[in-house]
Amino acid sequence: MEKIIEGKIFVLGNNIDTDQIIPAEYLVFSLTDEKESAMYGKYCLSSVPLSQSGLPEGNIPFIKKDEIKSEFDIIIAGSNFGCGSSREHAPFALNKAGVKVVIAESFARIFYRNSIDGGFLIPIECKEKIYTKCITGSIAKVDLEKYHLNINDKIYELNPLGDVLPIIEAGGLFEYARKSNMI
Amino acid sequence: MTITEKILARSARKSKLSPGENVWLNVDILMTHDVCGPPTINIWKKEFGNKAKIWDKKKLVILPDHYIFTSNKEANRNVKFLQEFARQEELPFFYDITQQTYKGVCHVALAEEGFNIPGTVIFGTDSHTCTSGAFGLFSTGVGNTDAAFILGTGKIWERVPETIKIIYDGALPKYLTGKDLILWLLKDITTEGANYKALEFTGSAISQLSMDERMTLTNMAIETGAINGIIAVDDITKEYLKDKVKVEYEEFKSDPDSKYFKTIKYDITKMLPIVAKPHSPDNCEVAHRLKNIKITKAYIGSCTGGKLSDFVSAAKILYGNKIKVPLFAIPATTRIEKELESTFYKMKPIKEILIEAGCTIARPSCAACLGGPEDTTGRAIDGDVVISTTNRNFPGRMGSKKSEVYLASPYTAAASAINGFITDPRDFL
Ligand code: SF4
């Protein structure tokens, strides 16, 4: 696992549900076929209301037209990120779009687990409402040793990953279990 | 310790544990259905390779129920996949849709078939797996990777949640159901109010509720963001389980000195029939203030509102009346479908009352609760305005993205179908 992740941030608000992350109509695409699974990246976050897409200004598409990957690597959001259905396609889609880390005030449980156990991305909680303080497109640095987020030299504290860190380091639940001879 | 902590400790083979701790649980039942079953099995095959072996076939329950009575190709491919898998593996608890043993909506079928054993731990590939918690057990939903891991090992990690205690006190007024009780809670704590928390329901009102009504409460625990909903075993639970569960089971109760994240208390005699407006289950308003909302369709069904008690409630209102807008009645399971013929209100079978009022009764399944393929019974089309006893009303949930869904009790749904606009059921009771 990379301990330092640098990239462009995309800012969202509260209650980003699994339907906004990947609308149900696209769930027909295969998760294993390379060409079809790229569609999950293409339509990732496509149901976020435009005014809420890329805060504080809004109206910033997460994926540019005709692209399948996003220019943004880090998502910063409010509370209850990933609420709604149990679909694993949601963190899968973010992963396909190129997102490595989601920093939110809180996560819905099933999304949190799916992100970690499927090895799709790193979900990290933060103590303050960072999403109200930063601008989409800024460059940020996530330090997973100090649990710091640095945006334009302003440091925000992140909650340590705690017990789930070994699963994330291994790259997912199955890799973790193999490494620790559970399976 | 709370009841949830005690059950998790038993499953983790620990004498003590506390909220925030991650523990490895030994799973008692894994449940899956036609939508998530095939991808779960595919992950299991890929990850375990030739070593792939189901940890305990007696603990795997597969209940196709979502997209089943349809001409949709992808949906039928899923059902075939499961039939083939169950045949190869000789699974004892696969309830095929083409057989007499077909059950219907998974969460209700688990209860009817005696899989809800108090004190145990149930995981399912469906967010409403929390329904089973009405039986004094821990149950929750997981994604496909987690389910595939359980399928091969019988184990899964979980973070022990803090508990919010919900006390419902008072004699249940005849115009309220479990649905009203849970919508009032949602109004107050919102869809993120119990994120990653356990919801423990207790109080004098709970002891008056049937198991059907209790399941409505625990079913919608997930709508508050909770990991599980739970109600301790009492005489009503035991009576329900009497002819269904033959093994000895443990009854857990919260200690008087248990630590709670929060306690919320309701005097239910002050509650009125309530409705969740589009597009969120916490967007609630009392029914009598929504008279100006004209509806085009009513729907009584699903794991939340398609149980026998839901149809009995609806029948009390529909008796001797005619509906103005189509009302779709979809029993959750085949057992309930039969019980509609053998259960009476004022000497008339419930089924007859529904038909005489003009309802359309369809085969048991999830049907239009989550939209489903084009040919699904009761699906919301175009700008439909639906009053429904289901659990979610996000945009497009019941079909058309342009439709609007109001969530309510079966009393309120039936009364509204008679009038053609949202109606407080007290006008009929
Ligand atoms: S009835 Fe609705 S909520 Fe219940 S399991 Fe089926 S689709 Fe899900």
Task: Describe this protein with a few key phrases.
heterodimer; A: 183 residues; alpha/beta; seven-stranded mixed beta sheet; 6 helices; globular; B: alpha/beta; five-stranded parallel beta sheet; 13 helices; 29% helix; 17% strand; binds iron/sulfur cluster
The average pLDDT value of chain B, as a whole number, equals: 97
Helix content of chain A: 10-25%
Largest interface: A-B, 35 and 33 residues
Structural class of chain A: alpha/beta
Strand content of chain B: 15-25%
- The residue fraction in helices of chain B comes out at 25-40%
Q: Report the major sheet of chain B.
A: 5 strands, parallel
Q: What gyration radius of chain A follows from the Cα positions, in whole Å?
A: 16 Å
Reported for the largest beta sheet of chain A, the result is: 7 strands, mixed
What features would you describe in this structure?
The complex is a heterodimer of chains A (183) and B (429). With 183 residues, chain A is an alpha/beta fold. Chain A has helices spanning 18-21, 34-42, 89-97, 109-117, 165-170, 173-179, and strands spanning 4-11, 74-77, 101-104, 122-125, 139-143, 148-151, 154-157. A 7-stranded mixed β-sheet of chain A has the order 4-3-2-1-5-6-7. In chain A, helix 2 (34-42) crosses helix 3. The model of chain A has no long low-confidence stretch (mean pLDDT 94). Chain B is α/β, with parallel strands linked by helices and 429 residues long. In chain B, 29% of the residues lie in helices and 17% in strands. In chain B, strands 17-14-13-18-19 form a 5-stranded parallel β-sheet. In chain B, strands 3-2-4-5 form a 4-stranded parallel β-sheet, with helices on one face. In chain B, helix 7 (211-219) links the parallel strand 8 and strand 9. Chain B is globular, with a radius of gyration of 21 Å. Classes of the chains: A alpha/beta (183), B alpha/beta (429). Chain A binds chain B through residues 14-15, 17, 19, 24, 28, 31-32, 79-80, 83-88, 106-110, 113-114, 117-118, 162-164, 167, 172-174, 177, 182-183, and chain B through 21-22, 36, 39, 42, 47-48, 74, 125-127, 141-146, 149, 152-153, 155, 157, 159, 191-192, 195-196, 225, 227, 371, 394-396. The structure holds iron/sulfur cluster (SF4). Iron/sulfur cluster binds at residues 65-66, 105-107, 126, 128, 302-303, 366, 369-370, 390-391 of chain B. Iron/sulfur cluster binds next to helix 4 and helix 9 of chain B.
